[in-house]
Amino acid sequence: MAQTFMQNQRGITTFQPLDVELRNVFKFFNEEPAVHGVDLDVRQGEFFSILGPSGCGKTTTLRLIAGFERVDAGKVLIQGQPMTNVPPYRRPVNTVFQSYALFDHLNVWDNIAFGLRLQKLRKSELESRVKDALKLVKMESLRSRFPNQLSGGQQQRVALARALVNRPAVVLLDEPLGALDLKLRREMQVELSNLHRDLGFTFVMVTHDQEEALCLSDRIAVMNQGKIEQVGTPSQIYERPQTSFVADFIGDTNLFSGEVAVVESACVQIVTKTGLTIVVTRAEDTPTELSQAVVVSVRPEKIQLSLYQPTVLNNCFEGRLVTVMYLGTHVNYVVELTNGVSINVLQPNTFGNLPDRDTPIYAWWPESDCLAISQ
Length: 375
Fold this sequence. Notes:
transport; CATH 2.40.50.140; Transp-assoc_OB_typ2; ABC-type putrescine transporter activity; 8 helices; nucleotide-binding; 21 strands
């Protein structure tokens, strides 16, 4: 089985088996590449998410792993074995679809048992495994109900149980919570995370929901136009995006286009197209070539507001409030700077009096709380 090298917190190198590998994978529809040279490694026991907007190729990538689509070029391997000529039903994977894909004419028990019956298991083993699956998803008391007698969350649990009962090497999740309302979706996120932790299966999930990917995943691959833009942990993807697309797609951010003007040992000065000078703490991946085109990303929650000019040297700009949006736990401000550029600011709601629109205000942020990205 293929392995990847990892370092733990003590710097000790360990070997982690790979459950899913994609090697330079292409898939074409009408001669247009839906998946374009994708390389991915999914580690054993990992919760791995493929995240991106509609039409980016993420669902096609999942279908290539499942075997519902054939690879036009490249290789898909599961537990080190090539899957080129292996049909879906012989692959050690099970898929949970957004639509649940339950059999309406079968009750909960029979829906979960369906795949096991195809394997011609002994009755005692089949019953034992179905009971275990029902217990995992807390559906024991509803075993005799039919899908149309279940809520959306209950149907989702049955779909999960049906996938898990076969004990696959990899569970594939295609927008598994997309059909649920917000409150139930968050409850199911917790349950899905607990299931993954308790069972130790490898989960590969496709989603367009950034918050869902960030809260559930060990690692995330961000896709755009059939290609992988970045792979990393949730904190790496959010705090250190490698492209302007990732910065803009993952959460909210303020983007400033400009070029490198001054390079010093500890920081880099960027002059934006609108005339702002932004100072960025220099890191290993910070662009340092003079006149190089860059985009500066500043998250709304990193920006501070003050009615009086703060005593900071850099990244402090005067403006006025044009929008104040009360969001309950937070307040979203839109500030128009004196050069006409508008920025979004997100601050915790401290239950104080909110400032009025058109209030003169200063917006500022530390050099370490912004990021320069090569264009």
